[in-house]
């Protein structure tokens, strides 16, 4: 018995082993169709077939062996195995009662076959059977059948033996039930697989890979442009035979590169090879990519790998499954560097395919015309590396291209310098025997021209063609361009007569001589040559009509000429534009002129562009409303097409390119350009905005300014340069704004402000626009030339080396790249850091960006694609706060809070040498010297240190002089000096060799200097400070140059000069980047100067003639309320900032509270302190006030209490007033002295009984942030409060209810509020460095301001109460000093901006104001 059992198991193992040979499905034919199920699906009881069909030579000797196999194959399906055990028991039951093993064995064999089929199908498609509902359903059905048979067998034991026929019927019914259960399971599984791959391809591959369908070898769209053809049957036979032999034999090389010069038929061969591979039984075409210069996505190397991956996913589901998982792990994988694309999109998914089966048909990928793809080597290099290293086993690659050097270096085995032979075979089309090529060309021309040509004609044409198929093809197109046979024959004979050489130039010359030969007059010849030169000089294809306009010719003339030249070019049926068949034709036309003539054609195109742009006008596309974004304007694209049209669109995009191509400009070009800039410049911006081309605007203007163009040898007129600069700056304000997608607001929200700021410098023709809205300005500070709202705190910002881009690092963990002219973000944010980005810098060649972060890492990014290069550079133990490239771009320097500097290899990312140690505290700034030999560092330890960049050893002693942390250090371009900025408010210059300070420190900033930079010529220094300002200094005499650059609402954290020294970029904690004109600015006016560090508190004297203010500089100042001039000296005595001030009722004394925890009383006439300071508070005193009779003083403090003091003795009166849940920020007596009001950082206002110290009523709520200041009105009926939410609110002192809307206008926290003595006005001061005066609303108040009440939102939009949409957007530079409706006066050192909406027209009528 043991031997029998052992024999059964042995036979079962043999059967299983034989069944594990998987049959591969032919590639390219199985996308959604399962492999055919082996075996006979329909079982017959009478069947005597004893074979197991999953292996052709397996024989089952006994039923027991078969059942053992059935049990073992079912083990692959855990839910099924137990149920199969029940089926086996049923078979045993029927065997025992019937003795008929034959029929039962057939059933068991069939179940084995079905089980193996399901297993193979699920394994191939990488699906887990254990969790599939269909398997669970099958197991449940088998269990039900088993229980039913078991029940019947138990009943049968107590009855007579059944008749044999009845037993046979039950066995047949049993088999049918089992068969039906398996069939239903199979259908469910196949449906699931089909549905799953469909969803996978639709949702993941199609939508996310970014592939190019136009690059497929057989796509209709691609053929329309590239006109790919197959080899004529019978031609190129030997070449195609060799290619097929290579593809079908595994022993041949993995790669095959066919190269040849233009016109040798590479793409035609590639097309025919694709067809061969698809028809072959030994190999299969699995992917293709046909590059094309004419199709943007087909000339972009970044689409090659995703396109191949997409096609492989369609043919191999396992590939698609792995690809999906890779995408889920990294959704941006398709935009990564080619090296990572090859690894993630090809190598790793292909491993999954190979793990399951070897391919019966060899998979082949075809990549054609590599030379027509820009920077193709970037994708080709990692792909070739994968081929050479065997990481794409079993796939073969066919490449074709011209022998351009970057491609040749990668594909030519002689160039690879490899120890082992290259896996890429090289085939040179020029090396083919001439007789063989001639034979193929003869076959081609015979097939095409046999109806008109004699044998002699065909032989002559074949001989002329030489080795160039394109020569023969061009002649054929030329000849067959005529309709009638006689004309065709005439053309053929002319071509044979005139073309004695094979060079294409001869062919082109001959055809052109025929088309524009001696039959034309000179002016007609000139016209046709002008058309040809215009056509090839155009920067994008145009229609015949467009070419005619740009060539100053007739459309019919152009169309006829193109039809006559159909051998070289064609009119696309898709866009009606003219395209050339081959790049060699425009190259030939260009070679027919010298540089001077080429420049003249561009000059002519420039003039025609300017003439076309004379069509530009205000509101060219009749935008319906200033409320509607451009994207939501119904039918806008149709209007653009109709109103702007092809030639005007082309002119708007490319006029600058043609101007630049003219070389030294002639007078008529500059005259036309100046006229255009004066009269149509703003309309040009409007049109480009509608076409979403503002970036192109910036490129044109920046290129023109950078070129420093000359007229002959005379420098361009100042007028033209000024106009270009004005237009560039206007563009920057609009393109970088929140209204760039709402074109009406170019005129409503941007032009009016820019006109005001430019004054006489504004383009004269633009002054005709009315003031909409009317703007009254008294602004004494420079406005930034460009302000970009980033949306997160800016930690670092710098220009690219060419000045065209700006890179910023932010607290939101991202790096962003911006166009420096328009302020538009370029590409997506660069993401990867896990914490704030503290420092960014461009590489010297502008190809890379390096960033340092608080996540302790340094990262390198591709500046073009935005993709991270390599892994993060790790090693620092603290935040990386500063990074720099060496001048040659080979090294990266980083400074960190871990007190060290590190140098990294910029290519490998490896650490170079040991960390540079010496600083006692964290680093703040690092920089290389211009020659790369030295490194300078600034630290929190207040020192500057110089290091040898090679050895890492400190050079000399530390540079000492700053007494606070050094925040920024930099070398000038000559490397002779070092400039440093510090928290001690100073900028210092040091000798770069000796380390000795040069001259005095540069003083003027009121707070820490965060960033410093030298101008490129080393003559100026720019500094940015916590005082929110940017200052320019003379680097020789250390004197400030011009006025301070104002505009940032918070500290200026980063500054830098543009490479040409004409602009300054600054980044700020106010989330903006601003670009400034680096010219000197002169300060205008003397308004209220003195409090250079921001006022904290202000109050009127009782008679209204004087104002007292407290400041962050620890002093009090008294001002004449009429003239704004300071009275006497500052009141000094507090050791810390003064937080609150107040006059006594009789005006003779002043009380002040300070962060030094004290209250002080001063003589208002002499400014001398009266008595000792009042002490008792445990923390800063935030607010003080006199009682109406002057006998008491009330104070509030950070200790959450309110205290009352005797004004004569200085003693505290009674207990502290307690109740606030946070610090008390402000206190005041009621006019009758019976009550006290207090405001707190708990956002509430409270009223107290001044005699008992108890709270009166509920607290007053409404502010969104802490209350900073409170005051009673003179009659005691109102209370005013100011808050950190930047608003002022008025309350009814009896009911505690807010009166009217909050007063809005300040854009920083309100620091102090007060009523005027007559109670009609409110005075408020703010951390925005302004004082505002407001009218107090009354029941009879009917000021026009109330009727025109508007609010400025944090997004910069002005909104009116009864208008749903915002009306006007205020540029960031003008918000801080904007006069709001409730404001009656703004007192500011820097002026104000006031608007009038009296004649303002908006919404659907917005354009009515511009009837010019």
UniProtKB/TrEMBL annotation:
Q: Which InterPro entries match?
A: Adaptor_Cbl_N_dom_sf, MLKL-like_MCAfunc, NPHP3-like_N, P-loop_NTPase, WD40/YVTN_repeat-like_dom_sf, WD40_PAC1, WD40_repeat_CS, WD40_repeat_dom_sf
Keyword Repeat among UniProt keywords: yes
What are the start and end residues of each WD repeat?
794-828, 830-871, 873-914, 916-957, 959-1000, 1002-1043, 1045-1086, 1088-1129, 1131-1172, 1174-1215, 1217-1258, 1260-1301, 1303-1344
- Signal peptide segment: none
A Gene Ontology biological process noted in the UniProt record is:
cell surface receptor signaling pathway
Domain (Nephrocystin 3-like N-terminal) spans 235-402
Q: Where is this region: Disordered?
A: 15-48
List all Polar residues biased stretches.
20-32
Q: Specify the superkingdom.
A: Eukaryota
> What keywords tag this UniProt record?
Repeat, WD repeat
State the Gene3D superfamilies in the record.
Answer: Adaptor protein Cbl, N-terminal domain (1.20.930.20), P-loop containing nucleotide triphosphate hydrolases (3.40.50.300), YVTN repeat-like/Quinoprotein amine dehydrogenase (2.130.10.10)
The record's PANTHER family line, in alphabetical order, gives: WD REPEAT-CONTAINING PROTEIN POP1 (PTHR44129)
Put simply, this protein is called Nephrocystin 3-like N-terminal domain-containing protein
């Amino acid at each position: 018995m043991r031997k029998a059992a052992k024999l059964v198991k042995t036979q079962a193992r043999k059967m299983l082993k034989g069944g594990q040979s998987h049959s591969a499905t032919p590639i390219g034919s199985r996308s959604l169709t399962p492999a055919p199920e082996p075996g006979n699906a329909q079982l017959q009881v009478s069947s005597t077939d004893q074979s197991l069909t999953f292996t052709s030579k397996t024989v089952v000797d006994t039923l027991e062996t078969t059942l053992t196999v059935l049990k073992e194959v079912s083990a692959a399906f855990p839910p099924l195995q137990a149920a199969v055990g029940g089926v086996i028991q049923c078979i045993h039951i029927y065997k025992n009662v019937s003795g008929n093993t034959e029929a039962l064995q057939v059933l068991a064999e069939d179940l084995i076959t079905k089980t193996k089929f399901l297993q193979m199908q699920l394994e191939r498609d990488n699906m887990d059977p254990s969790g599939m509902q269909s398997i669970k359903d099958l197991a449940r059905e088998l269990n039900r059948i088993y229980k039913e048979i078991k029940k019947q067998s138990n009943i049968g034991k107590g009855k007579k033996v059944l008749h044999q026929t009845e037993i046979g019927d039950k066995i047949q019914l049993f088999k049918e039930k089992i068969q039906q259960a398996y069939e239903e399971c199979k259908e469910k599984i196949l449906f699931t697989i089909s549905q799953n791959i469909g969803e996978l391809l639709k949702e993941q591959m199609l939508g996310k890979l970014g592939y190019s369908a136009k690059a497929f070898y057989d796509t209709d769209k691609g053929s329309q442009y590239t006109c790919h053809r197959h080899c004529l049957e019978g031609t190129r036979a030997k070449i195609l035979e060799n290619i097929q032999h290579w593809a079908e034999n595994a022993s041949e090389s993995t790669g095959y590169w066919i190269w040849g010069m233009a016109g040798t038929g590479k793409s035609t061969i590639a097309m025919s090879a694709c067809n061969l591979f698809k028809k072959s039984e030994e190999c299969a075409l699995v992917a293709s990519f046909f590059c094309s210069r004419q199709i943007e996505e087909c000339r972009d190397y970044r689409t090659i790998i995703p396109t191949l991956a997409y096609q492989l996913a369609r043919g191999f589901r396992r590939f698609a499954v792995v690809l999906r998982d890779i995408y889920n792990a990294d959704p941006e994988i398709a935009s990564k560097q080619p090296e990572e694309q090859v690894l993630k999109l090809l190598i790793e998914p292909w491993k999954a395919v190979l793990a399951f089966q070897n391919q019966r048909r060899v998979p082949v990928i075809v990549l054609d015309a590599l030379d027509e793809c820009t920077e193709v080597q970037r994708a080709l290099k990692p792909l070739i590396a994968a081929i050479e290293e065997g990481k794409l086993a079993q796939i073969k690659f066919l490449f074709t291209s011209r022998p351009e050097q970057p491609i040749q270096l990668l594909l030519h085995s002689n160039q690879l310098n490899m120890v082992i032979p290259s896996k890429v075979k090289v085939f040179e089309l020029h090396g083919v025997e001439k007789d063989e090529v001639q034979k193929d060309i003869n076959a081609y021309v015979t097939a095409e021209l046999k109806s008109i040509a004699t044998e002699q004609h065909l032989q002559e044409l074949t001989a002329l063609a030489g080795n160039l198929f394109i020569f023969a093809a061009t002649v054929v197109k030329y000849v067959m361009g005529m309709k009638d046979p006689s004309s065709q024959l005439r053309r053929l004979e002319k071509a044979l007569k005139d073309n004695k050489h094979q060079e294409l130039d001869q062919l082109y010359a001959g055809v052109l001589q025929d088309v524009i030969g001696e039959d034309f007059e000179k002016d007609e010849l000139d016209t046709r040559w002008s058309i040809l030169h215009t056509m090839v000089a155009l920067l994008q294809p145009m229609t015949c009509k467009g070419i005619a306009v740009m060539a100053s010719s007739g459309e019919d003339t152009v169309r006829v000429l193109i039809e006559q030249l159909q051998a070289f070019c064609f009119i696309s049926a898709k866009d009606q534009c003219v395209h050339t068949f081959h790049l060699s034709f425009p190259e030939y036309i260009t070679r027919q002129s010298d540089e001077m003539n080429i420049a003249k054609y561009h000059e002519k195109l420039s003039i025609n562009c300017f003439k076309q742009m004379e069509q530009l006008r205000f509101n060219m596309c009749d935008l319906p409303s200033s409320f509607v974004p451009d994207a939501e304007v119904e039918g806008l694209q149709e209007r653009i097409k109709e109103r702007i049209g092809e030639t005007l669109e082309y002119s708007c995009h490319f006029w600058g390119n043609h101007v630049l191509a003219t070389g030294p400009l002639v007078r008529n070009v500059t005259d036309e350009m100046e006229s255009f800039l004066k009269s149509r410049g703003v309309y040009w911006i409007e049109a480009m905005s509608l076409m979403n081309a503002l970036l192109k605007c910036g490129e044109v203007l920046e290129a023109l300014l950078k070129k420093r163009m000359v007229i002959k040898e005379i420098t361009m007129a100042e007028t033209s340069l000024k106009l270009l600069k004005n237009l560039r700056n206007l563009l920057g304000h609009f393109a970088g704004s929140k209204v760039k997608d709402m074109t009406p607001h170019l005129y409503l929200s941007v032009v009016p402000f820019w006109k005001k700021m430019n004054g006489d410098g504004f383009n004269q023709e633009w002054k005709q626009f009315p003031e909409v809205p009317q703007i009254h300005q008294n602004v004494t500070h420079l406005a930034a030339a460009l302000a970009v709202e980033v949306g997160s705190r800016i930690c670092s910002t710098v220009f690219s080396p060419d000045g065209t881009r700006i890179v910023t690092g932010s607290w939101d963990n991202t790096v962003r790249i911006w166009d420096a002219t328009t302020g538009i973000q370029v590409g997506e944010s660069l993401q990867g850091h896990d914490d704030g980005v503290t420092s960014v810098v461009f590489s010297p060649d502008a190809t890379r960006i390096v960033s340092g972060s608080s996540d302790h890492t340094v990262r390198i990014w591709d500046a073009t694609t935005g993709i991270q290069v390599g892994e993060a550079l790790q090693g620092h133990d603290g935040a990386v706060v500063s990074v720099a490239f060496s001048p040659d771009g080979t090294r990266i320097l980083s400074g960190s809070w871990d007190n060290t500097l590190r140098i990294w290899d910029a290519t490998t990312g490896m650490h170079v040498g040991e960390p540079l140690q010496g600083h006692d505290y964290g680093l703040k700034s690092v920089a290389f010297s211009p020659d790369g030999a030295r490194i300078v560092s600034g630290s929190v330890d207040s020192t500057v240190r110089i290091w040898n960049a090679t050895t890492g050893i400190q050079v000399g002693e530390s540079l000492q002089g700053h007494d606070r942390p050094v925040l920024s250090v930099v070398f000038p371009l000559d490397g002779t000096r070092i400039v440093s900025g510090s928290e001690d408010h100073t900028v210092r210059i040091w000798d770069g060799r000796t380390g000795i300070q040069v001259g005095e420190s540069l003083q003027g900033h009121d707070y820490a200097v965060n960033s410093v930079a030298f101008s490129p010529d080393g003559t100026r220094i720019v500094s940015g400070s916590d005082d929110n300002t940017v200052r320019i200094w003379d680097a020789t005499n250390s004197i400030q140059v011009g006025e301070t650059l104002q505009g940032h609402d918070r500290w200026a954290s980063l500054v830098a000069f543009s490479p040409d020294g004409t602009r300054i970029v600054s980044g700020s904690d106010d989330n903006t980047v601003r670009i400034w004109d680096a010219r000197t600015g002169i300060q205008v006016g003397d308004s209220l100067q003195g409090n250079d560090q921001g006022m904290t508190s202000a109050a009127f004297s009782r008679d209204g003639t004087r104002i007292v203010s407290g400041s962050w500089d620890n002093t009090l100042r008294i001002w004449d309320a009429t003239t704004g001039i300071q009275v006497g000296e500052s009141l000094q005595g507090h050791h810390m900032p003064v937080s609150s001030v107040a006059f006594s009722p009789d005006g003779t004394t002043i009380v002040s509270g300070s962060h030094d925890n004290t209250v002080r009383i001063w003589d208002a006439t002499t400014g001398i302190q009266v008595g000792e300071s009042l002490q008792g508070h445990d923390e800063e005193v935030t607010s003080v006030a006199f009682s109406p009779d002057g006998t008491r003083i009330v104070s509030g403090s950070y200790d959450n209490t309110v205290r009352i003091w005797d004004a004569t003795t200085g003693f505290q009166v009674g207990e502290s007033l307690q109740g606030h849940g946070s610090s008390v920020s402000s206190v005041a007596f009621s006019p009758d002295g019976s009550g006290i009001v207090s405001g707190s950082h708990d956002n509430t206002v409270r009223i107290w009984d001044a005699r008992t110290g108890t709270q009166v009523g509920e607290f007053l709520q409404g502010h969104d942030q802490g209350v900073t200041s409170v005051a009673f009105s003179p009659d005691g009926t109102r209370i005013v409060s100011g808050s950190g939410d930047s608003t002022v609110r008025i309350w009814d002192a009896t009911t505690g209810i807010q009166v009217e809307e909050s007063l809005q206008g300040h854009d920083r926290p309100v620091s102090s509020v007060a009523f005027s003595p007559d109670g009609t006005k409110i005075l408020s001061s703010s951390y925005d460095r302004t004082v505002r005066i407001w009218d107090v609303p009354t029941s009879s108040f009917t000021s026009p301001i109330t009727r025109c009440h508007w609010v400025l939102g944090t997004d910069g939009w002005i909104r009116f109460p009864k208008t749903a949409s915002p009306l006007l957007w205020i540029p960031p530079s003008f918000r801080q000093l904007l006069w709001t409706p409730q404001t009656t006066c703004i007192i500011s050192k820097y002026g104000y901006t006031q608007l009038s909406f009296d004649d303002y027209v908006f919404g659907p009528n917005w354009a009515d104001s511009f009837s010019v």
